Amino acid sequence: MSEKSLVQRLAELRADAPVSLPSHPDVAVWRAPTEADIDAIRAVAVAADTVDHPTWTTPREEIADTFDLPHIDHARDSLVALDASGTIIAFGSSFLHPARAGALTAHLGGAVHPQWRRRGIGTVLLRWQRARGLEQLAQAAAEIEAAETDAAVATSAAADEPAASDEANPTTPTPRTADLKLYGEESQPDQQRLAERAGFTAERWFTSMERDMSAPLPTPPAPEGITIVAYTHERDDDARLARNDAFRDHWGSLPSQPESWAKFVGGPFFRADLSRLALDAEGAIVGFCLASVNEDDWQTLGATNSYIDLIGVVRAHRRRGVAPFVIAATLAAIGEAGLERAVLDVDTASPTGANSLYEGLGFVATERSVALVTRI
Fold first, then answer.
1. How far apart (Å, rounded) are the C-alpha atoms in residues 53 and 186?
2. Angle (nearest 5°) at CA 56 between 238 and 347
3. Which residues contact 160 (CB under 8 A, 6 or more apart)?
4. Which of 111, 158, 278, 299 could join 326 via S-S bond, C-beta 3.0 to 4.6 A?
5. 127: closest CA among 115, 141, 110, 113?
6. β-pair partners for 210
7. Residue 183 burial by CB count (10 A; 0-12/13-18/19+): exposed, middle or buried?
8. How confident is the model at residue 166 (pLDDT cuts 50, 70, 90)?
9. At CA 266, angle to CA 38 and CA 32, rounded to 5?
10. Spatial contact of 126 and 144, defined as CB atoms under 8 Å apart
11. Does pLDDT of 353 surpass 70?
């Protein structure tokens, strides 16, 4: 018996999980959010942040950006829950990543206001998110299969060969994988149990790390032929492509798309003056350490700080000392800016051994989050 295609597997799962509005006695209305709801959604997010991860809060801009990205349709991809007074008390979404290179991934996110937890609202909301995610994956997989079939038929016709054969049947799609993914805080085991009851499995853990900038700065040796420069926006797309190369073998990573990258490097928190690029002798980007500053986090963390969003080295230049060299340059810039802490998150099973690298640069582990996945 031939293996079922991704389209077939998704069709079977969707048959058991149709998309329908949730029902809960404490929720008066379920509806799609609009831009007018951004502040109300953030109010729920901030209330949840205070309980789930009190050292940082969700920026308003992060929520607002989702209403501008072309691959997100809030009318279909998101829901908000309103109580009898018309106040938003929960929100949830399923966003399909726009990359179509191999894996298809739908990211599920949202929160229930802490005052409304332990009533089952999160359970019914997650059930809807999962169903919507399966619907998104099924649509994308079907589109890919149709495009591949059309291409195979066109190629066969051009070569004046039969359109079907055992070796190259145009109705057989290229093998692909798909998954649903969400994140929870290790300090909140209820989140993990809720996801596991919905069929998700904990696959990966991520550790937050902090560095006290009053400690002496590291001075790693410069790799031969490598120079460090400050980030400049004329290198935006070069940096995106370097990021995609550097993260090709990282767990769960998909290629960053131009629209979302532009939101990141053009956003209000990104700090080009603190970010650094490592260049080879020809001026190509071979490493990067990109940082941001969100002053809202200063109060929650209890110190002024910069968050290091991305650190990477293109695969052809790994194991040459590029990573500590470019990180040290960003740390120096953070220190010169008078900020008290540097903060980052790291995959505890990173193939690059990043945990040990950051510890050697003075970072100390603080909190952990967990990635929970449904593999299709």
1. 10
2. 55
3. none
4. 278
5. 110
6. 343, 364
7. middle
8. very low
9. 20
10. no
11. no
pLDDT tens figures, 171-222: 444 547 999 999 999 888 999 999 999 999 999 999 999 999 999 999 999 9
> Mind giving me the DSSP string for 67-107?
TT-TT--HHHHEEEEE-TTS-EEEEEEEEE-S--SSEEEEE
For helices 258-265 and 236-246, the axis angle rounded to 10 degrees is 110
Grouping H, G, I as helix, E, B as strand and the rest as coil, residue 101 is coil
**181 close to 107: Cβ distance less than 8 angstroms:** yes
Neighbour count for residue 161 (Cβ, 10 Å): 11
* Torsion angles phi and psi, residue 360, rounded to 5: -70, -20
DSSP bridge pairs for 182: 372
Element (H, E) at 208: strand 201-212
The rounded Cα 193 to chain-centroid distance in angstroms is 21
Tokens encoding 170: 């145009």
Q: What is the pLDDT of residue 4?
A: 87
User: Quick check: helix, strand or coil at residue 99?
Assistant: coil
Q: Return d(Cα 374, Cα 376) in angstroms, integer.
A: 6
Q: Identify residue 164 by its one-letter amino acid code.
A: A
Q: Which residue has the tokens 């901030």?
A: 46
> What's the mean pLDDT in 332-356?
88
d(CA 294, CA 270): 9
Half-sphere exposure of 242 (CA within 13 A, CB side): 25
Q: Which helix (H) or strand (E) holds 10?
A: helix 6-16
DSSP 221: P
Token couple for 91: 């929100």
- Rounded Cα distance between 331 and 317, Å, is 21
Instruction: Pick 317 or 1 by higher pLDDT.
Output: 317
Q: Which band of pLDDT confidence, cut at 50, 70 and 90, is reported for residue 68?
A: very high
Distances, alpha carbon 87 to alpha carbons 33, 40, 231, in Å: 12, 8, 43
Predicted pLDDT of residue 148? 81
Q: How many residues does the chain have?
A: 376
